[in-house]
Design brief:
Chain lengths: 272, 171
């Protein structure tokens, strides 16, 4: 039987290992047999042996004096940094677990929130009831009592407003309201706005619903001239100074200022 | 195993020089070598449950260090090594100055060739031929088979030999 004679490339991967004594006895014998007949491979082995000798001579690093003095401290510092980071990760993991638990029990969480909302409804109703308290239905009474807040909320109610606006009110009472409005101009802008809203919606005796400016004109002119019923609103030329003077004269001894009223009824600060 | 503080201090003291030397040969920079060796000890402390005896401590430290060094080399990329040679340590006393100079150049060239190797080949060559670990020890440190070690070390030697011969032919 013919056997194929091994060639150099068959031993190429073994030569460095042969030079370093890393082959098994059988492999070494095989390589040695080849080397005895192959000068090129012998040269390679010699080169590997030379290389190995040079590699073993490569010097280890020369460490400076005191190189290891702070070595252990450096190790501890690194350990502390890792442990600190691990603690942070654990805290973060704790939060994530809580969020996950809430997510898993989301139905329970939704039920609790719904229950809380239901329980808070009576509070809302009570809150609303303050604004829903029935005001006096009589406009004259409201003006006489200087119940500006009641008047304001009565005017906000569309059904009540209709009946209040159709109610005949003594002109003198309206004069008083306007006088207080004018006096309040420099005191409390919220009060003034509230009264303006009220007066803007009150019908005059002529049965014409006017805006604030026209209401003020009419009332001012009536006060100034004293011809409340005789002068049609369209013919009035308003003189504000005159109106104010007249109103002051009329109301000086009869009315309270808005500011005083609020102080005595402890309503200051509330929105009118 | 639970490592008491005192025992850990002793482990650090007994292994620090070997680990710094190995790391230095792998990364070629003394400060980086120190830092990586310290990380290896820190990891031992933090993962003490993975070792049961001194032998495992020995291999665990080197295994961790080698992996840290390979990661470091991959992150850093190829840079010129800072390895310097102590001429008195590799030259014989009776060698003349010219021969010493030639040996210095040869060894510098050797380091350049080793630096240019692939990380696995480089690590295997350094562990086997420079640090002097046996094939079995190298395989344990690198967590691979003995045949892998032999294969990588052969490839490394072959690459270095070829480059050195080319350099010698030019020189």
């Amino acid at each position: 039987m013919n056997t194929i004679k091994p060639m150099c490339h068959d031993f190429a991967a073994l030569l460095s290992l042969f030079a370093a004594g890393e082959l098994t006895a059988k492999q070494s014998a095989s390589v040695a047999a080849h080397l005895s007949a192959c000068a090129a491979c012998r040269q390679k082995v010699a080169a590997y042996e030379q290389l190995s000798a040079h590699l073993t001579k490569l010097a280890p690093p020369t460490l400076p004096e005191g190189f290891f003095d702070d070595f252990h401290a450096g190790v501890k510092k690194k350990i502390a940094s890792v442990e600190g980071a691990q603690q942070q990760q654990q805290q973060m993991a704790g939060w994530l677990v809580m969020v996950h638990a809430l997510y898993r029990r989301r139905r329970l969480a939704i039920a609790i929130v719904t229950l809380l909302l239901l329980l808070s409804i009576p509070t809302w109703l009570t809150h609303d009831r303050r604004f829903m308290a029935p005001p006096p239905s009589n406009l004259t009474q409201l003006l006489e009592q200087r119940d500006w807040m009641g008047l304001y909320y009565a005017m906000r109610n569309s059904e009540l407003r209709t009946s209040l606006l159709n109610e005949p009110v003594p002109v003198q009472l309206l004069h008083t309201a306007l006088a207080e409005l004018l006096k309040a101009q420099h005191q409390d802008p919220k009060i003034r706005l509230g009264l303006q809203q009220v007066l803007a919606k009150i019908k005059t005796r002529e049965g014409i619903s006017l805006g604030l400016g026209r209401s003020a004109q009419i009332l001012g002119a009536i006060t100034a001239t004293g011809y409340a019923t005789a002068i049609p609103s369209r013919q009035i030329v308003w003189n504000p100074e005159m109106s104010l003077l007249a109103l002051t004269q009329v109301d000086a001894n009869k009315t309270m200022t808005i500011h005083q009223l609020l102080l005595t009824t402890n309503l200051e600060g509330n929105k009118l | 195993m639970e490592i008491p503080e005192q025992a850990f201090t002793q482990i650090v003291a007994s292994h620090q020089r070997a680990l710094v030397q190995l790391a230095y040969r792998l990364v070629g920079n003394l400060e980086d070598a120190k830092d990586l060796a310290q990380w290896a000890f820190a990891k031992l402390w933090l993962n003490h449950e993975r070792v049961d005896n001194e032998r495992q401590v020995f291999y665990y430290l080197r295994k961790i260090l080698v992996n840290l060094c390979i990661d470091h080399l991959r992150r850093r990329g190829k840079v010129e090594p800072e390895v310097e040679f102590e001429e008195n340590q590799f030259s014989s006393d009776d060698a003349n100055p010219l021969q010493q100079l030639e040996e210095q150049e040869l060894h510098h060239q050797l380091w350049s060739c080793i630096e240019a190797l692939k990380p696995k080949q480089k690590v295997t060559l350094i562990l086997r031929d420079l640090e002097g670990y046996s094939v079995e020890e190298t395989a344990t440190i690198l967590d691979c088979t003995k045949n892998n070690v032999l294969c990588n070390v052969h490839l490394a030697r072959e690459n270095v030999r070829r480059k050195i011969q080319q350099w010698l032919a030019i020189a």
